[in-house]
């Protein structure tokens, strides 16, 4: 086991930097209870608002954090026994010109005039809730984690309305206390408000925030001061049943058309005001957004994010342990081609210091493959230390039931069990300048080859002009995480980056500057196996467009056979060594235009002294706010010696997102992947007829590219309804 020097550095920094007071604690908004009714109409002329305190004098964050915003905003809040209310008014200093992408829920932040609320009910500056809207009323909601990140897959019951005129736009909302989690009896919450105004290219915040940090940074929230403790939400019990019917046919397997009906659902029960129990029986995820296809020229397994709703609330407790390429738990391993029978999860805050996540999932057996039924259990605990840091513990267990011993050698998925134990320390300084992590993982399995170790650590600094990061990783050859995502084993990695920004006093540029990134890989005997080093120069413009150039140096010693085209032509031999250089660029247009575009490219060497050219472009046009059209094209041209010779292939995607209202959506996606010989069509109609209740109609079809014919197709009608007390 290697000594982790960064863990010691993190501990020293914690003692020195994490004990100071929250930076913006003196920005205080008082909230008083109202006895008058509040009508959510986006007008805000109810008597309840007359005596409400106002948060105003917003600060500019972007393009520069140099004073008060030119486009000012005003926020009022009040509450009654059931709901938390907010009224936000956004004034136009210049002629009104609103920019929105569509009426799609959980919109892309940077492409819409919008307002966001950030709530930190536990004052831990790490977790919370976010609500908001764009200027045409599309809603945004999510749970907050890691101090500034937002999981938009979380949905809850709340209502809002927006009105607009030439002078201003107004947002009004009501959030039931039952829809959020908080500690009873606490009279001060962390809070902040953010506005993005694209006509002025200005992002502003109620509290001052350095420009290198997002306005969602909970380290820079102000304080919401209650005149009395907010009302206890009481027992919150919800049942979310679904019923569906589907028709499908697999022509590739020469099967007949099949029809199927299915029922199931979820149950949500508040164990406390901040801890929730979720149960699922016979879950179905047919309405989940389809994965975006990518051209795969990587030697290792690609990562596709989790999109299934049950796994997402408080998902950071389960999914963020370790690094992106060293995850002891990855929920997409559960139910992979196997029906999930039932599952349970307890997650949330135990108190101001402790968070917990406990999950158990049961899958069915598959007679065709001999795969036994399996149970997946995960325990995650977090303990807040110092100001904003935490110590985490994780236990992951995969257990086969009625294990068929005759399948011992077929595949690791038949193993009797695989377990992971992990300990992690996350550093976050009070001013957000310092961040870091140190973790250690131990795997357990029936075979000695599955009993290994993985560990990593990094330390990062981010100021306005300077940023740097140092990181190390080690994954032993016998480390296994069958319910995780660890695409590479038997390596030691040392990496770092150093960047600097220059800020011109005028002109079209806001900032520009270089960034150097270095990644070196070694085997466990500390012999170099590959490296990637690249120098980037970034340009950011005042109208929010951006330009980037890079040069890179690659070296690879293959650790296993690899086809550099992934077309099944031939493999390069294990142990062969390859080195090349490349040059590339990327440009993103300003989001204010109805027509948006980006283009990127990469020219340079490749394996076996070959050459690779890769060109990518994304095009978009919107008929705001109802229709958003987009297309992405990726072209690869690879020149190699025989037997590969010259190969080229396209990846093309086209999407039409039609939003009739902010409750009625029709999304269509077509993807053509020449590398895999597949074309996919996915059409999804969604009617949110009631808060958090939906009707879905989903059609999918997969085609062979050559010859062009259907592989399989399916049509699903699904109805869900949220019943609560």
From TrEMBL:
InterPro entries: Carb-bd_dom_fam9, DUF5916. Residues 235-336 form the DUF5916 domain. Pfam families: CBM9_1, DUF5916. Residues 40-199 form the Carbohydrate-binding domain. Gene3D superfamilies: 2.60.40.1190. It comes from the Bacteria. This is DUF5916 domain-containing protein. It comes from Maribacter cobaltidurans.
């Amino acid at each position: 086991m290697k000594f982790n020097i960064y863990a010691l550095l993190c501990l020293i920094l914690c003692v020195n930097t994490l004990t100071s007071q929250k930076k913006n604690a003196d920005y205080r908004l008082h909230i008083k209870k109202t006895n008058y009714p509040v009508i959510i109409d986006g007008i805000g002329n109810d008597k309840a608002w007359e005596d409400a305190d106002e948060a105003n004098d917003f600060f500019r964050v972007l393009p520069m954090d140099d004073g008060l915003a030119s486009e000012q905003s005003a926020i009022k809040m009040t509450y009654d026994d059931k709901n938390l209310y907010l009224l936000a008014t956004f004034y136009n200093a210049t002629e009104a010109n609103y920019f929105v992408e569509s009426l799609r829920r959980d919109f892309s932040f940077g492409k819409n005039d919008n307002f966001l609320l950030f709530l930190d009910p536990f004052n831990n500056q790490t977790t919370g809730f976010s609500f908001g809207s764009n200027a045409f009323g599309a809603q945004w909601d999510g749970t907050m984690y890691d101090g500034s990140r937002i999981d938009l897959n979380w949905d809850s019951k709340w209502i809002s309305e927006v009105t607009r005129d030439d002078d201003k736009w107004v947002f009004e909302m009501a959030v039931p206390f039952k829809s959020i989690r908080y500690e009873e009896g606490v009279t001060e919450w962390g809070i902040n408000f953010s506005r993005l105004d694209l006509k002025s290219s200005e992002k502003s915040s109620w509290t001052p925030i350095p420009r290198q940090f997002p306005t969602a940074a909970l380290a820079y929230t102000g304080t919401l001061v209650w005149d009395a403790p907010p009302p206890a939400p009481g027992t919150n019990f919800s049942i979310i049943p679904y019923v569906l019917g589907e028709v499908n046919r697999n022509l590739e397997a020469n099967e007949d058309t099949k029809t199927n009906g299915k029922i199931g659902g979820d149950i949500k029960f508040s164990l406390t005001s901040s801890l929730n129990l979720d149960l699922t029986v016979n879950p179905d995820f047919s309405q989940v957004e389809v994965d975006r296809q990518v051209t795969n020229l990587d030697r290792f397994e690609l990562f596709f994010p989790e999109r299934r709703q049950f796994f997402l609330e408080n998902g950071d407790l389960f999914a963020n342990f370790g690094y992106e390429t060293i995850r002891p738990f990855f929920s997409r391993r559960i139910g992979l081609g196997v029906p999930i029978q039932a599952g349970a999860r307890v997650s949330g805050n135990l108190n101001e210091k402790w968070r917990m996540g406990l999950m158990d999932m049961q899958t069915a057996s598959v007679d065709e493959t001999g795969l036994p039924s399996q149970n997946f259990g995960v325990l995650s605990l977090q303990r807040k230390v110092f100001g904003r840091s935490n110590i985490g513990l994780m236990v992951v267990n995969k257990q086969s039931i009625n294990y068929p011993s005759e399948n011992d050698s077929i595949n690791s998925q038949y193993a009797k069990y695989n377990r992971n134990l992990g300990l992690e320390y996350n550093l976050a300084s009070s001013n957000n300048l310092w961040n870091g992590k140190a973790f250690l993982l131990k795997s357990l399995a029936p075979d000695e080859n599955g009993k290994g170790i993985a560990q990593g650590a990094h330390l990062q600094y981010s100021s306005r002009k300077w940023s740097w990061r140092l990181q190390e990783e080690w994954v032993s050859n016998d480390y296994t995480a069958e319910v995780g995502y660890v695409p590479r084993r038997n390596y030691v990695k040392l990496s770092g980056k150093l960047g600097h920004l220059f800020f011109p006093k005028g002109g079209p540029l806001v900032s520009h500057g270089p960034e150097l990134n270095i990644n070196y890989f070694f085997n466990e005997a500390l012999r170099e196996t590959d490296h990637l080093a690249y120098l980037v120069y970034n340009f950011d413009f005042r109208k929010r467009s951006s330009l980037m150039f890079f040069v890179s140096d690659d070296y690879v010693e293959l650790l296993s056979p690899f086809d550099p085209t992934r077309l099944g032509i031939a493999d390069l031999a294990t142990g062969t060594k390859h080195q090349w250089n490349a040059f590339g660029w990327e440009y993103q247009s300003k989001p204010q235009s109805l027509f948006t575009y980006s283009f990127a490219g990469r020219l340079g060497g490749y394996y076996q002294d070959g050459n690779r050219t890769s060109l990518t472009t994304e095009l978009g046009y919107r008929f705001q706010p109802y229709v958003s059209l987009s297309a992405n094209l990726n072209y690869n041209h690879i020149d190699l010696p025989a037997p590969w010779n010259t190969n080229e292939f396209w990846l093309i995607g086209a999407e039409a997102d039609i939003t009739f209202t902010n409750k009625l959506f029709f999304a269509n996606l077509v993807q053509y992947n020449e590398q895999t010989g597949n074309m996919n069509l996915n059409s999804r109609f969604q009617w949110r007829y009631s808060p958090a209740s939906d009707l879905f109609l989903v059609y999918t079809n997969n085609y062979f590219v050559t010859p062009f014919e259907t592989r399989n197709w399916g049509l699903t009608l699904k109805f869900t309804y949220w019943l609560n007390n």
